[in-house]
Amino acid sequence: MKDKLRTFTEFSQSLFPHEIDYLLSIQQFQKEENLNLLKVIHHNAHCPQQPRSFDPSIDKRTYSYLKNWIQENLRKNDVDAFYEWLTGIEKSIMNDYIETKAEKDLLSVMAHLKPTAYYFMKFYRVLQHYRDYLIVRNRVINYQRVSEYLSHYSENYLRSQTINNKMNDAAEKVIFKKVRVPEEFQVWEQLFASTYYDESLDGYTRYRALIRLTILYYTHREFDKLKIVYQHLDEQFKTPVFYSPRILANYYANKAMIHSKLEELSEAEYFGRLSLRYKNNDYLFYLINLIDVMLKAKKPIGALRLMNEAVEEFRRSGNHYYRIGFASYYIRTLSALHQNAKAAEYGETFLQGFKDEILEFRWHLFFSTLFEALFKSEKYGRIIHLVNRFRLINREKQLKGTHQYLPILQMFYAASEYMQGSMSEEEAYITLSQLIKELSPKRITSQKTQDLLETIQKATPDIVHRLKSEFKLIFESHTYKQSGTIVETTTGNTF
User: Which residue, 77, 104, 136, sits at the end of a domain?
Assistant: First the structure.
């Protein structure tokens, strides 16, 4: 029985809180033990720091029944499982062979699937193929039934298709940061928000709109607006509208980012850890989000442990965007643990092996973290060399005017030139002061800027002291949490 309880406990720990919320809302158990067990799972999902144990006196068949019941009810509403089934049906139709049972299942689904279903558009297209399959075989009765469905919902399909085409056009401008004026921001905000909140549309279209709205708000630092949207989505996930483990993991990862940006670090870590329960192609991205949160919360040892556990995922990944992000945060984690020489050495090795990929994908993140490690290791000449070799100043200046712009590389370069004797103290001060003046007050007082100044201050205390005096009024008008001193040490494995 102990083995059975251990297996059931591990299974229950793999479930997401929203899954349990939904299961509780639909349960109609006649047996009280089933409901009590489900309530224990619900408590443990929402209060992982205060878990309750399962009753070993309950018959093991009850545990088996509840596990099967949970899996079956989640599977029935899993939109990804439905898509996989639908793709199999489509393949058999396109290969001119569909079994009788599969046809019956398809027609049975057609009888109740509405335009609000998540994969309505895909289902509609499969029915179009099926209608072609039927007409050449003179299957009149089924042909008429399918044609009636297609005709009845044709406007719904065309409407969703039109909206998706509009979002495709808009996404290019949003994701590639081509939104330059407030009027454009408002146009895309209206398109994405109205689409997401429109419950007459299919779930796929609505969720695509949500992702694009998330990117738009995230890019423009509209985190309070984003939080409101995700509060609405939170309630949606307690129903089967958008349900799949993949989508839930993505939701938790996004929630982690939102709470992190709002400096709500305990909530961010909670959701970040939830996102890691489901391993998919975005696992490394979710992990990087969590590592960022843990470093902000001054938990570098835990961050390093998680990264070491994910080494195989890192090595297997073919996604250079994720790989560079992972490597950058590995450097940052080592620096947080005062292992600056090791951080710099790893960064140099990674740069040697993936120079082209870094320059194409996440060059600013990578060089920012590498320069921090090099600066702390007093390798000022190396920073100057890399800046000149890859023309990083010009690259960074091209980011001016965007919400992401922060002259990290230029500031490290100026401080390094001063430390190398290529620039006087007054010249270095004027250069750094001018770079800061280009920023908004909110950007000046951001944690990233504060951390950057703190790093530079250790080598150039007089210059940074003058800078803080110059911008004293701005600093005093914003709350700034002083960085704590890390006293932890680690002997964890590295790669």
Answer: 77
- Do 435 and 410 contact (CB within 8 A), yes or no? yes
Residue 13 has which token pair? 């720990």
Task: Tell me, yes or no, whether 6 and 67 share the same domain.
Answer: yes
pLDDT at position 77: 93
**Within a domain: residue 411?**
no
For residues 57 and 86, membership in a common domain is answered with no
Kindly state the greatest CA–CA separation across the chain. 88
Query: Are 375 and 456 in contact, with CB atoms under 8 Å apart?
Result: yes
Q: Is the dihedral of CA 407, 410, 414, 415 positive or negative?
A: positive
Describe the crossing of helices 32-46 and 17-26 by its angle, rounded to 10 degrees.
150
Residue 241 main-chain phi, psi, to 5 deg: -55, -50
Question: Is the separation of the CB atoms in 294 and 315 below 8 Å?
Answer: no
- Residue 485 falls inside a structural domain: no
Measured over the CA atoms of residue 270, residue 273, residue 278 and residue 281, the dihedral's sign is positive
CA dist 439 → 98, 123, 408, 449, 473 (Å): 63, 50, 12, 10, 15
CA atoms in the 13 A half-sphere facing the CB of 440: 10
Residues 86 and 137 placed together within one structural domain of the fold: yes
Q: Choose among 303, 283, 285: nearest CA to 294.
A: 303
Spatial contact of 436 and 474, defined as CB atoms under 8 Å apart? no
- Within this chain, do residues 88 and 139 fall inside the same structural domain, yes or no? yes
Q: What is the pLDDT of residue 260?
A: 92
Predicted confidence at residue 5, as pLDDT, reads 85
Tokens of 360: 């194409």
Q: Are residues 73 and 27 in the same domain?
A: yes
Question: Residue 142: CB partners within 8 Å, gap ≥ 6?
Answer: 103, 107, 134
Q: Is 197 helix (H, G, I), strand (E, B) or coil?
A: helix
Tell me which residue range forms the domain holding 22: 2-77
Query: Does any domain span residue 200?
Result: no
CA nearest to 91, candidates 78, 106, 76: 106
Distance CA 393, CA 383 (A): 12
Q: Which two tokens stand for residue 25?
A: 């809302």
- Mean pLDDT per 10-residue segment, the chain (495 residues): 79 94 93 94 91 90 95 95 97 93 96 96 97 89 95 98 92 65 81 96 96 89 91 89 93 93 93 93 95 96 96 93 96 97 97 96 96 97 97 94 87 97 96 93 86 94 92 63 34 34
Q: What are phi and psi of 244, to 5 degrees?
A: -165, 150
Token pair of 54 as six digits: 């399962």
In this predicted structure, what is the pLDDT of residue 133?
Answer: 94
Q: What is the pLDDT of residue 177?
A: 60
C-alpha to C-alpha distances, 355 to 209, 328, 389, 434, nearest whole angstrom: 35, 13, 12, 31
Beta strands in 320-465 (DSSP E): none
